[in-house]
C-alpha cells in the first residue's frame, strides 16, 4: 500500500506542476459552461416570440382566436402580436421578421358556424424553429376547439335543440375549455442553463482530465522510466494501482471544484450533496474505465491523445453535453442511453430541478459502475501487459 501511495503522490505532483490539470479540469469547463449558458440558455428559459396576424375575417371566431388565444394571459409575457393588413404582408414577414404568421381568411367565422370546412393558415419562419412550432401548436389547439364546437352543434341539433346553429357554434368555440390545464415543473423548480451546462461541460472535460493520468504509462515507456520500475522491487499491480488512485483523485477533485465554482459564479444548483457526490464518484470511475481501455489500444502517447479526444467528443455529442438531449431526435435520445455520461447528465438534470435523495440517481450510478467495471477491467489487463513487455 505504501508503494501505491508513493506512486500516486508522484503522479499528482507531476500533474499539478505542469498546470495542465487546472486548465483542463477546471478552467476550460467552467469557461465553456458560462459561455454556452449565456448563448444557448436564454433560448429555452427566456423564450419570446412575435406573431404576425392578418385578420381578413373580422368575425367572432377570428376575434376569439386573436384575443382569446394569442393574447391570453398565459402568453402575455412571451408572445407579441403584430397585426398586418393583408395575407401577403403576413407571409412576407414570416420570411424575415417574425416567428410565424397567421392568416385568417374572409368567411372563416361564417364557415365554422355553418358547419362547413374552415381554414386557418400558419406560415412558419425558417429561421425560428421553436417559435414556429409554438405558433403551429396554438393554431392546432384552436382548430381542435373549432372541430369540437361543430360536433357539439351537430349533436345538439340531432337531439332536437331549437337554438340557432350559428349561436351554438359561437358559444361552443369561444367559451372556456371543458378541462383546465395546470402547468407545473417536475421536481419543483425550473432548470437553469448553468445547472445543465455546468455538469455537461464537467463530464465532457472529465475524460480529458483522467486521460492525463492514463497516458502517463505510455509516456514513461517512451522515455524509458518504465524499465527502471520493472528493475525495482515494485509489482506492476502496485504501479497501476498508484496511477489509478492519482487519476481518480484528480478527476474527483476537478468535478467537486467545478461544482463549488459553478454554484458560486454561475448560480448553478446541483441538488442534494450526498446524491451529487455519489453520482460524481461513479462518473469519474466510468470515465477512468473508458479512457483506460481506449488508451490501452494505443502504442504511443500521441496515439493515446488522439484516441481519447475522439472518444470524449463522440460521447459528449451522444450524451447531450453540447445541446440538450431533449432537443435531439428520438434516435439520438435512445443512443444517449448507451453512454455513461448521458445517464449521469440526465441524473444531474433531475437533481438540478429539485429531485431529492439517492433514489433519483441510483440507475445512473449503476450504469456508470458497470461501464467502469467492464471497460476498466479490460483496460487494466492490457495496461499490465505493457508493463511486462
Please characterize this protein's 3D structure:
By secondary structure, the protein is mostly helical. Strands 2-1-3-4 form a four-stranded mixed β-sheet, with helices on both faces. Helix 4 links the parallel strand 1 and strand 2. The longest helix has 30 residues. It starts with a helix and ends with a helix. The mean pLDDT is 77.
Q: How many runs of DSSP E, i.e. beta strands? A: 4
Name the helix and strand elements from N-terminus to C-terminus, one letter apiece. HHHEHEHEHEHHHHHHHHHHH
User: Which secondary-structure class do the elements indicate?
Assistant: mainly alpha
Low-confidence stretches: none
Strand arrangement within the widest β-sheet reads 2-1-3-4
Rg of Cα set? 30 Å
Separation of termini? 24 Å
Q: Give the overall pLDDT as a whole number.
A: 77
Shape, principal axes of CA atoms: elongated
Give the number of helices: 17
Largest sheet: number of strands, sense, barrel closure: 4 strands, mixed
The fraction of residues in strands falls at 5-15%
What level of helicity do the residues show? 55-70%
Amino acid at each position: 500500500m505504501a508503494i501505491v501511495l508513493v506512486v500516486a503522490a508522484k503522479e499528482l505532483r507531476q500533474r499539478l506542476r505542469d498546470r495542465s490539470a487546472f486548465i483542463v479540469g477546471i478552467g476550460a469547463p467552467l469557461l465553456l459552461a458560462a459561455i454556452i449558458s449565456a448563448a444557448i440558455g436564454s433560448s429555452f428559459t427566456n423564450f419570446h416570440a412575435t406573431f404576425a396576424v392578418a385578420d381578413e375575417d373580422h368575425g367572432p371566431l377570428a376575434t376569439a382566436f386573436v384575443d382569446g388565444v394569442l393574447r391570453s394571459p398565459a402568453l402575455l409575457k412571451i408572445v407579441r402580436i403584430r397585426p398586418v393588413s393583408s395575407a401577403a404582408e403576413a407571409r412576407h414577414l414570416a420570411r424575415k421578421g417574425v416567428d410565424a404568421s397567421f392568416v385568417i381568411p374572409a368567411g372563416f367565422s361564417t364557415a365554422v358556424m355553418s358547419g362547413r370546412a374552415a381554414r386557418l393558415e400558419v406560415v412558419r419562419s425558417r429561421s425560428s424553429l421553436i417559435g414556429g412550432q409554438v405558433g403551429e401548436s396554438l393554431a392546432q389547439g384552436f382548430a381542435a376547439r373549432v372541430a369540437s364546437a361543430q360536433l357539439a352543434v351537430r349533436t345538439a341539433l340531432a337531439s332536437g335543440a331549437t337554438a340557432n346553429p350559428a349561436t351554438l357554434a359561437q358559444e361552443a368555440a369561444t367559451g372556456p375549455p371543458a378541462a383546465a390545464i395546470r402547468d407545473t415543473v417536475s421536481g419543483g423548480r425550473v432548470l437553469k442553463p448553468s445547472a445543465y451546462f455546468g455538469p455537461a461541460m464537467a463530464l465532457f472535460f472529465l475524460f480529458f482530465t483522467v486521460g492525463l493520468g492514463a497516458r502517463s504509462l505510455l509516456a514513461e515507456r517512451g522515455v524509458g522510466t518504465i524499465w527502471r520500475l520493472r528493475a525495482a522491487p515494485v509489482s506492476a499491480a502496485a504501479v497501476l494501482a498508484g496511477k489509478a488512485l492519482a487519476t481518480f483523485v484528480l478527476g474527483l477533485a476537478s468535478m467537486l471544484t467545478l461544482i463549488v465554482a459553478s454554484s458560486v459564479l454561475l448560480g448553478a444548483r446541483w441538488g442534494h450533496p450526498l446524491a451529487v457526490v455519489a453520482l460524481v464518484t461513479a462518473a469519474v470511475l466510468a470515465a477512468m474505465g473508458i479512457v483506460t481501455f481506449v488508451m490501452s489500444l494505443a502504442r504511443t502517447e500521441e496515439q493515446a491523445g488522439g484516441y481519447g479526444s475522439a472518444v470524449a467528443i463522440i460521447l459528449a455529442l451522444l450524451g447531450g453535453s453540447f445541446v440538450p438531449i431533449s432537443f435531439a431526435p428520438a434516435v439520438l435520445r435512445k443512443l444517449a442511453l448507451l453512454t455513461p455520461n448521458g445517464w449521469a447528465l440526465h441524473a444531474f438534470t433531475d437533481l438540478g430541478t429539485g429531485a431529492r435523495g439517492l433514489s433519483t440517481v441510483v440507475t445512473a450510478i449503476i450504469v456508470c459502475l458497470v461501464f467502469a467495471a467492464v471497460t476498466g477491467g479490460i483496460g487494466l489487463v492490457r495496461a499490465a501487459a505493457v508493463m511486462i513487455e
